[in-house]
Amino acid sequence: MATGAGWAPPRSVERHGAPRAGGGARSKSVAPGPRRPSPFPARSRPAPDNAGSADSCRVRVAVRLRPKNSEDLAHGADFDNCVELQPESKRLKLKKNNWNCESYKFDEVFSENASQKRVYEVVAKPVVESVLEGYNGTVMAYGQTGTGKTYTVGRLGKDDPSERGIMVRALEHILSSMSFETDCIAISYLQLYLESVQDLLAPEKTNIPIVEDAKTGEVSLPGAAIVEIKDLEHAFQLLQIGEANRYAANTKMNTESSRSHAILIIHLQRSSRIKGENCRSLSNDTLDIFPDDLPLVLKSKLLIVDLAGSERIDKSGSEGHMIEEAKFINLSLSSLGKCINALAENSPHIPIRDSKLTRILRDSFGGTARTSLVVTIGPSSRHYSETSSTIMFGQRAMKVVNTIKLKEEVDYEILYKKMEREVDQLTSEMERQQKVIKSEKTQLDKKLKESEKAFHDLRLTSNMQIENLEKEKCHLESAVKNLMQTLEEEKGRRNLLSEQIIELEKLLNENKQQQQLENISKTKILADTSKEHEKEMGELLKLLEEERSCSSSMKNRMSVLQQQLCDAQSSAQLQESMAREFEKKLTKVTEEFTSQLQSLRKIISELISEKEVIYEELKSTQEKAQQEMRHRQGLEDQILRMKQSASDNCAEESKASCGMVRSGSGLGNAAFVSKSGKLREAVSGQRGTISKIFEEVGLPNVLSLLKSEDQDVQIHAVKVVANLAAEDINQERIVEEGGLDALLSLLETSENTTIHRVTAGAVANLAMNGSNQGVIMNKGGARLLANVASKTDDPQTLRMVAGAIANLCGNEKLHLMLKQDGGIKALLGMFRSGHTDVIAQIARGIANFAKCESRVISQGHRKGRSLLIDDGVLTWMVANSTRFSASTRRHIELAFCHLAQNEDNTCDIIASGGIKELLRISRESPREDTRNLAKKALDSNPAFLREVQ
């Protein structure tokens, strides 16, 4: 829920004049009063008028006549009317007797047949349309109690749209005329009860202050809930909540008499803008303050007031607290009448501060709002003085003139949202850039790491290559040395062979001749030896050439390796330069990382200190929990000790005598009172024991024992709660402390028959309180009770369940939910037990249901056949009406008579043979009021009369 702070205008531009609802000519505002100079220039606009006449801004008053009700028909004949309407001339005649009457003229006169739609279109629609244009408005109903004010103004009509009152129709009109993209609608729903302003949407808010702005004179209610709505369904829910929280009571003049003034405040905010002619009419300074693109809003307020009815104590029959309510109602209405008189007579002093009602309505009479008043009257001459007073109030109200003003305010909210969007865009752009920078930094870090890794790998690879090249160089050098050494050895061998050849040639030449002669035989051997040496020399020469070619290839490979070594050294120098640059970047990033790491360490240290504090708190909490556990264990031990001193039979009898199943509907209590003197003494002693437990242990601790794992402890705790719930003073407190939730949980989860019986009795006692009945139904209490009834045949348990459902039957607002949850079927199904006390509770519940349903149908709040007929209750009553005790028969007869009052039940009653039963009741019933009800049902229904004849 939003508070009213958001509606306070930061700066306003006033427009004088009344809004135009029809096609009438625009006119200046009437009776403009002095006002303080505004810090901003005001722009005037002529006020449109609904009627186009000179009294366009006065309060418009309509009269609505209520049809005769059953009480009027019972106290007078058709001619016994004090009001005669003349709708065509908008007049009415008030007759004191047959020769003395007075005529009054109003803005509109509605007969008893006027529809809700026509009343809205004439009375409220012009005001609503002016509110949509930006002007304040008020629609109010005034009259004697029981004349239809709440029906005219506050009727919801959710099931029948034709029955809707002014509140619902105004909200429907406004919602259909607004654009939720640029406009806003919110409502507050208040009541003035015992001169205290209370919030109907938030009942905990009471005694709300009324604040008046010293500069503008506007009235506000700070602290009242303001709820923004988007559709009619949401509005229905809020109105239903407010209606449920409003104070009402049953009087002789009205079964549902409102005991407070209800005020529905509708706040509207619509977009507007200064353009065109309006801008040209302003000065340059004004244009500097209000540029063309400055957003403006129209803020208006509609008050729909359902006043409590004026009444006389002797006629209404109010007693006790209702007398105090009537005094405050009449006092506030009297103060309102004094203000109307003073305004009508142009008195210099208006007694607005005499009542909170007049302070709230300060703007509606003599203020800046367009106001429509509908006064409701009854036709009966028995209330001539009240009707005359109401008519004179309306006549004086027609003389009150209001000064209508239109206010335009600078919509700082739109400007704020625009700046907020720009800030969001800049923030998102900054965050995007930060993300880009962060991503680039991450990529650079990644590239740096990759480069460092590549540089490290390259350095290792280069070192390995250099080592391999050096090893290979050493190996090659050693190989070259070996080859050179081998070559030198081959050269020495060759030289040696050459020398040997030369020597051999010399020897050969020297000894040639000798050998030729001497060694002819050896010539061949020498030739062969020479050939072998020549062959060996050829092989040595070939080997020398191969060694030479191998040496040249080794030299070439050595030059290539030397070139590769030079290239590797230049590449290593380039990588060293790149590594130095990367080291610089790495140093910078390392410094930033170090600073971030320090900040993170600081945050971690703070978190560690917070963790230590939380650990200390957790430790203290654990100690408290252990103390609570020890205290709870002591309470359980105390309950177990008390269990030994109180027997179950005494507890059962004390429950019966304390009234664990009592009626909350006014139809009489069940006869469960003990007649024995000894039993009364036992009950008194048991009550003393329960009071002692309650005082020593306390209600929260007793309720905590309902969750005990010991079943005996649970049973005795439920008995204590049940006996406490028998006292009216404890019932609401038990629900507030969570006792109802614990009892319903036991009904749902426990399988113990004793727990079911005692728990159902406790729920029955809580159901005696009207405020608790709705809570029980909303939490599924009827469904759980029906489930228990279907699972047990124990008469005492069924008696408690039937008593609880019978108490719920006494609330007409819960009938439909009770039927849907199976409560009626369960109530009728418990007849199977045949126990006298159970059947007495069944009959009481049916009588409660029928009586409340008959009252709702007679008031026009619901139509159709009875909900009891669908579940076979009528057939059961016809078959068993004469079988039981006198008190049970009395409840069945009373229920039958109330069902017969509804004409929609006629066919079912005739088909079930109920005519004979009605005739028997009208003749033989021991109670006179029951016989009269039966006779009235027979006489007023033509179908019954035909069946009787």
Automatic annotation (TrEMBL):
Region Disordered, as annotated, extends over 1-56
Q: Which Gene3D superfamilies match?
A: Kinesin motor domain, Leucine-rich Repeat Variant
Q: What is its main location?
A: cytoplasm
Any one Gene Ontology molecular-function term assigned to this protein's record: cytoskeletal motor activity
Q: Does the keyword Ion transport apply?
A: no
Superkingdom per UniProt? Eukaryota
Cellular component terms (Gene Ontology): microtubule
| Pfam families xref list | Arm, Kinesin
Task: Say which species the protein is native to.
Answer: Urochloa decumbens
- What residues does ATP bind to? 143-150
Location in or out of the cell: Cytoplasm, Cytoskeleton
Fetch the SMART domains from UniProt: ARM, KISc
Q: What is the lineage of its organism?
A: Eukaryota, Viridiplantae, Streptophyta, Embryophyta, Tracheophyta
Coiled coil ranges (UniProt) are 409-450, 480-517, 572-638
Domain Kinesin motor stretches: 58-400
Which sections of the protein are ARM repeats? 697-739, 738-781
Protein name in UniProt? Kinesin-like protein
The UniProt family comment states:
Belongs to the TRAFAC class myosin-kinesin ATPase superfamily. Kinesin family. Ungrouped subfamily.
Q: Tell whether ATP-binding is among the UniProt keywords.
A: yes
Q: Which terms are listed as keywords in the entry?
A: ATP-binding, Coiled coil, Cytoplasm, Cytoskeleton, Microtubule, Motor protein, Nucleotide-binding, Repeat
